[in-house]
């Protein structure tokens, strides 16, 4: 069978799957037999599976049912890169982002969050970008504060985030862009009990190690990693009720300002892997549906809401009537973060039409 024929058959298979899904029929493992990369299958789903909210598998190998989307606009956030359709998550993740954005404004004066990728409607691997973000429990938050104005669809596609690094030096914070508010924002994110890790660039972690005078245990959740100088990444624990969700090992005790951080400032993490003469680079291996938890086949092929209007959106969080005055100390910021109540009644916010 020629390549073209195979590609045509594959396209045909995808169309069939889409049809099966749109009619609400459940194709059991129709897609698992062929070797289509799972990222193509999950990347093609525009809406979530209607089912109980459940995260299946691990952050970097799994999927999500019953996902909800964060509204594109809230009082203290704007979602970016709307064309990617990655503002879906487990309802607990969406609630956390909404609450965090409100707390950041009320307690540290951060004018609002610009939201990067959360997950695809059904989670799963993505065609571009991340290894994780597959189960609706990871979210990227820009380190650029939200502007006063409502950004247009086009601006949300094109505006760039700001790096916190001085690119003329090795792993060094750019003092002209980094502020104590950035430190407070990251540490506020780390202060929530459900937040298990916050990923940042090693230079940012070092800056926090050197300057943070608040809770050092929360600092231990802030983990150095490649990139993450334009945004930071919040990861929450497996929610209760997600039996198929695989928890990550707890972070080691302590603030993490130790050898594990010092390693990033050596040559080791940046050295190019040595190649033997004549050795070919390894072929990239893409996960197929059969590499993911079994439930992900059902999630992929499960029924979607009839339209985007019928999909479920966030805003279960409602700001308290009285917004507390800006906190006067970092300890107050961290202490108060656990106290703001979650409202029970979801209040949908208007979503601007895509232009
Ligand atoms: Zn991320």
From TrEMBL:
One of its GO terms (molecular function) is serine-type endopeptidase activity. Transmembrane segments: none annotated. Disulfide bonds join 209-257, 238-245. SUPFAM superfamilies: Hedgehog/DD-peptidase. GO terms for biological process: proteolysis. InterPro entries: Peptidase_M74, Zn_M74/Hedgehog-like. This is Penicillin-insensitive murein endopeptidase MepA. The gene is mepA.
């Amino acid at each position: 069978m020629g390549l073209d024929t195979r590609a045509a058959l594959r396209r045909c298979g995808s169309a069939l799957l889409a049809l099966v899904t749109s009619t609400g029929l459940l194709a059991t493992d129709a897609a698992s037999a062929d070797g289509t990369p799972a990222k193509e299958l999950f990347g093609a789903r525009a809406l979530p599976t209607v089912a109980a909210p459940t995260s299946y598998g691990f952050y970097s190998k799994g999927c999500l049912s019953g996902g909800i989307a964060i509204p594109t606009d809230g009082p203290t956030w704007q979602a970016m890169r709307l064309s990617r359709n990655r503002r879906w998550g487990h309802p607990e993740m969406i609630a956390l982002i909404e609450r965090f954005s409100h707390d950041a404004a009320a307690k540290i004066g951060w004018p609002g969050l610009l939201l990067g990728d959360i997950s695809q409607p059904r989670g799963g691997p993505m065609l571009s970008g991340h290894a994780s973000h597959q189960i609706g429990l990871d979210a990227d938050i820009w380190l650029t504060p939200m502007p006063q104005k409502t950004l247009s669809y086009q601006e949300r596609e094109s505006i760039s985030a700001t790096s916190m690094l001085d690119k003329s030096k090795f792993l060094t914070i750019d003092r002209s862009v980094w502020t104590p508010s950035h430190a407070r924002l990251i540490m506020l994110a780390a202060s929530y009990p459900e937040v298990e890790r916050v990923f940042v660039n090693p230079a940012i972690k070092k800056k926090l190690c050197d300057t943070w005078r608040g809770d050092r245990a929360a600092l231990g959740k802030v983990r150095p990693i490649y990139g993450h100088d334009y945004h930071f990444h919040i990861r929450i624990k497996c929610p209760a009720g997600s039996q198929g969700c695989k928890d990550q090992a707890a972070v080691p005790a302590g603030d993490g300002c130790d050898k594990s951080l010092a390693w990033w400032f050596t040559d080791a993490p940046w050295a190019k892997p040595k190649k033997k003469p004549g050795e070919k680079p390894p072929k990239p291996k893409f996960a197929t549906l059969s590499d993911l938890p079994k439930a992900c086949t059902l999630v992929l092929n499960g029924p979607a809401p009839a339209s985007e209007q019928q999909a479920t959106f966030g805003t279960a969080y409602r700001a308290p009537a009285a917004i507390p005055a800006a906190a006067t100390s970092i300890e107050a910021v961290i202490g108060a973060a656990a106290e703001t109540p979650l409202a029970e009644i979801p209040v949908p916010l208007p979503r601007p039409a895509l232009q």
